[in-house]
Amino acid sequence: MQKVLITGHKGFIGKYLLSYLQNKDLYVFTYTEDIRSIHLTDKIYDVIVHLAAKTSSKDILENPTECFSVNVSGTQSVLEYCRKAKCKLIFLSTSAVYGSLNSEKKIPEDHPLAPKSIYGLSKKISEELCEYYNQSYQISISILRIFNVYGIGQKPGFILPDILNSLSSNSPLVLRNPDAVRDFIFIEDVCEAIFKSIEVKGFSVFNVGSGKGIRILDLVKTIENIFQRKISVQSEINTIQELSYSVADNYKISNTLNWKPRISIEDGLKKIQNEK
Q1: Cα–Cα dist 163/184, whole Å
Q2: Comparing C-alpha atoms, which of 261, 255, 111 is closest to residue 183?
Q3: Residue 263, domain CATH
Q4: How many structural domains compose the chain?
Q5: Which of 79, 84, 237, 250 could form a disulfide with 211 if both were Cys (CB 3.0 to 4.6 A apart)?
Q6: Using one digit for the tens of pLDDT, what is the confidence trace for 137-170?
Q7: pTM recorded for the entire structure
Q8: Helix (H) or strand (E) segment spanning residue 186
Q9: How many CB atoms lie within 10 A of CB 234?
Q10: How far is CA 147 from CA 114, 237, 239, in A?
Q11: What are the tens digits of pLDDT across the range 38-93?
């Protein structure tokens, strides 16, 4: 069986992925130290799934230096490990690398990258490091650009859990960009995409999204209908540069890995409701 190491296993995606992979025919390990100082041990892994990163918009704005240190230097440290150990890397990136879009079209993987946030920029630079290490050292690397992942147990600081938090606390929901269109992908579908990318050789980039967009205000209405409760919405001046339209073209991953999202936004929300 292959040995798979997960970095960032205590995060939202990491917790689910750890449980998911442990039910597969794999030996699964976790890394608990500072990702910027990962080093070779007596365990040599076949695959590293690199999740460890700073992701909170608020934290990143307050400390961009730490964001770059963890996200970029941490990735470079993992790449060095992969170079020495000759193991495959699965790097979780983000749809934020695409930046602002000129039209309401689904985003393919070959769309130009022009991130408008520190987080997106840190992931873009990390992707460039991945490509360099692949070209220079022939490391197999799969980059997965995750769109708006959601699921049970996700902490506030992201769109959907913020809406649910307002719902449960009966407090006003403050939206900076209520007309923005987003692509929400359930955590279980993300885990399946990661698992299916383990066997991919060479260098590859895949969008991981549902391929369906929903306006944030329409998402609020959908949540109100499912939970049978009303949410008070307030608009706020947008001080954080965000995309107005972000929907994945997921043809490549569907065609290459035979992966398709199984859980619609409505079904995903019902799963969350059943856990409340």
Answers
A1: 14
A2: 261
A3: 3.40.50.720
A4: 1
A5: 250
A6: 999 999 999 999 999 999 888 899 999 999 999 9
A7: 0.94
A8: strand 184-186
A9: 10
A10: 16, 24, 21
A11: 776 667 899 999 999 887 776 777 778 888 888 999 999 999 999 999 999 999 99
User: Which whole-number Å values give the CA distances from 3 to 28, 29, 130, 245, in the listed order?
Assistant: 6, 7, 21, 38
Contact at 8 Å (CB) between 266 and 226?
yes
Total Cβ atoms within 10 A of residue 174: 13
d(C-alpha 132, C-alpha 259), whole Å: 27
Torsion of Cα atoms, 23 then 29 then 35 then 40, to 10°: -150
Token readout for 173 is 């929901």
User: Which pair of structure tokens corresponds to residue 73?
Assistant: 């230097």
Which DSSP helix (H) or strand (E) runs through 214?
Answer: strand 214-215
Those residues whose C-beta lies under 8 Å from the C-beta of residue 11, and which sit 6 or more positions away, are: 51, 52, 55
Domain that holds residue 137: 2-275
